[in-house]
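Case study.
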Amino acid sequence: MRRRIGAGLALLLGAAVAAALVLGNRGDDGGDAPAALVTVHGVIGSEKKPFFDDPGVRAAFARHGLRVEVDTAGSREIATSVDLSRYDFAFPSSVPAAEKIKQKRGATRVYSPFYSPMAIATFAPIADVLARAGVVRDSGAGYQVLDLKRFLGLVAKGTRWDALPGNTAYPARKRVLPTTTDIRTSNSAAMYLAATSYVANGDDVVGSAGQADRVAGTVAPLFLDQGYSESSSEGPFEDYLAIGAGKTPLVVIYEAQYASRLFAADGAIRPDMRLLYPAPTMLSKHTLVPFTDTAAEVGRLLQEDPQFAGLEARFGFRTSDPKVFAGLVSAAKAPIPPGLVDVVEPPTYDHLEQLISAIERRYPAAGKPSS
Amino acid sequence: MSDRTGRLVRRAVAGAAALLLLPVAACGGSGDQPGRDGPEVLRVLAGSEVKDLEPLLARAAGAAHVTVKLTYAGTLDGADEVASGAADGRYDATWFSSNRYLSLIDGASAKLSTQTKVMISPVVLGLRRAKAHELGWDTHPVTWADIATAAGQHRFTFGMTNPASSNSGFSALVGVTAALSDAGEALDRAQIDAVTPRLTRFFSAQTLTAGSSGWLADAFARRGADGSTGGSTAAGQVDGLINYESVLLGLAGTLKEPLTLVYPRDGVVTADYPLTLLASSPRKEAYDRLASWLRTPDVQREIMTTTNRRPIVPEVRPDARFGAAPLLELPFPNRRDAADALISAYLNQVRRPSRTLFVLDTSGSMRGERIDALKQALAALTGADASVSGQFSRFRDRETVTLLPFSSAPGDPRTFTVPERDSAAVLGQIRAYGEGLGANGGTAIYDSLRRAYDTLAGERPTGDFTSIVLMTDGENTDGSTYDDFAAYYRTASRTAPAFVVLFGDSDTGEMRRVAELTGGAVFDARTGSLASAFKEIRGYQ
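After joint prediction, the assembly is written out as follows.
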């Protein structure tokens, strides 16, 4: 969940802070300290934490007199259960959640500085098996897509890996199910739900409670049958990088997670790893809702300042100026397309919430031990 | 008993005792506030599995400016503590081999903040080399179904920890069940019911059980080719263990006959050791520093080298010791009722039954609070303890329990057999019997312990997990001495370990010698409660 460079620097930073505290405690007058920074508190989706922890990002904020402190929470929690009065801004990973927060808090502005498409990380032999099964194809634009409609058909039949034709590469008995995070807490799973519900709803965005109910029955097994799933989007991707195909032959991620590793050239993405884009896919539009003017300045910097755009792209996010991200892609010779064609919009907050709740109800309530 | 075996026994018992006593030592004292300049203290509720990281963690004070203070608890006990809120304010973080069971408990997720995976170890089968060769499992790929078939044919035996006490046992149970059920998706109750007969055949080969992975490994090492005592076992040699790969690799170096690791090709369940910040903790920065430091490549390499666990960061690749077998991960239940139904089926239907004798001090010194504590502890084992871990530590269906109270002389043993179904009536009888205990007279420890072993010697061998619990609050005042008992003990081949509870004014030295002699372990109820010591012992029965 932390990058190597980030970790080392974070340690140094920690030590520096500790030293500063010790020194600070000694002097009473605090004389010639550098201009005091204004601290802004935010609650954000966990996938952006490495960005806000990055020393480069912190230094960039400091140059504008700002210090940004963040807590992490799932986008759904940010929109519902988190006590927002303790924060200067909320920064969920999706537009629906941001809209809900904006409404709830009566905010007037929002900033959408960067976005990342939902993608599926896998391995070359597995992509080949799925290609033979007719669910993975070449987009014709330099990347492979996972045909969601065909894929859902395969999943609905309870297909197991070892039943796929000609599959000698991954003859596992377990079912063909992409690993996601816990749909009840995490935004990346909700994005996957948004895309699959679109397909299950006859290629249409779910737009009513009735549709949500009907579609939930079709897509619920995608989540429930996986068994235990983690609450943070870093967890499954870590398993993908460290354990590999045995645990996570297919894992639903944000493109940014994969791209940032490629850009860092840290060896984490090995030659047999592949990134697939579901067709249709969904964009996770990270949207900042400020509650104060200082927080609005944070949003403005993230959205408009070219220096921040460069930092954001380094973390794999796509910004409004596509050249920044494209530059990193070409420098890293990364197999990442400049743009995606088949992108659909998520349902509104309320309808997405109805979908999630309908799936949540299918988890039986916790029972007493039956001994 | 040869000298070599004697040494092993001592070492193993000392290890087990240290493991059990450490929590008490580690959580005492209240100096948790960081010194002005000193490293910040991070109080961590941990599974005993991470004990082997203590030397590494000692360096975190210098390297990450964090002093890590570990308190150990069993997996389900720890889960109870976190979910109920009892851990709030007492600990800053948890560190168990997995958060999966905990996450299934309603409301538990809200207690947890950031989780950082630190390392990886799958649960696999380790077999003595000759046995692995005999079965052909050293050269051919094996599935859990193959292993179950061989188990049903009595071609090998194995040891495993209790799934209600220890994560390795729970993971193994989930893995075996998922593989044998051939379900392909997460288990539900119907699948668990359907697969129970196959599980029963599989676990008929389990002849060694324990409450913790470390103790299991020690007991296994003791039960070498000579089949000497140690552990709650049916008689005879134990051919292998189901445990973490890291434990098995570590053990392999200490055994005369090496272990062959068998990686079932239909899948495993893997521990990922998430260091987890509690939402209630104010020490987020200290947590962040420790978590970051643990994931630096150098520390990851050191973890791999010194503890045989696989690194979690992709920058450090697992080395040759782990082999090249692909590790297919089996789905883990996402429903609490499924997980609980599985543990319950294992304890009450699937595994070999327990045969347990409780040798209980009812001398005059027990009068008052102490005898009340004993009554309470016994009642808890009849189902009065409503917590998750309490329910799983009750007297099990098919278990035969003998209560043997003593004072100046052994009392009359009273034996109860809990039936396969409708256990409530017998459990009620046990509770009523416990309620009727009085406290009077002297303390004839060794005559009474001898009576327990005599009782067992008079029974037909059943293959049940047989063990004795000895609880006394003072020194031996009547009848034979420890030396008399030791001489008696050695007159026959005995396999039942004595689990000794230190209580009140126990003679600690002598009690340790009893545990050593019989291959048991010592549990300390002098600072904690008698009920929790009994509960912990249940993991070993």
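Observations recorded in class. The longest strand of chain B covers residues 119-128. Residues 121-269+328-340 of chain B form a domain with the D-Maltodextrin-Binding Protein; domain 2 fold (CATH 3.40.190.10). We will return to this complex in the next lecture.
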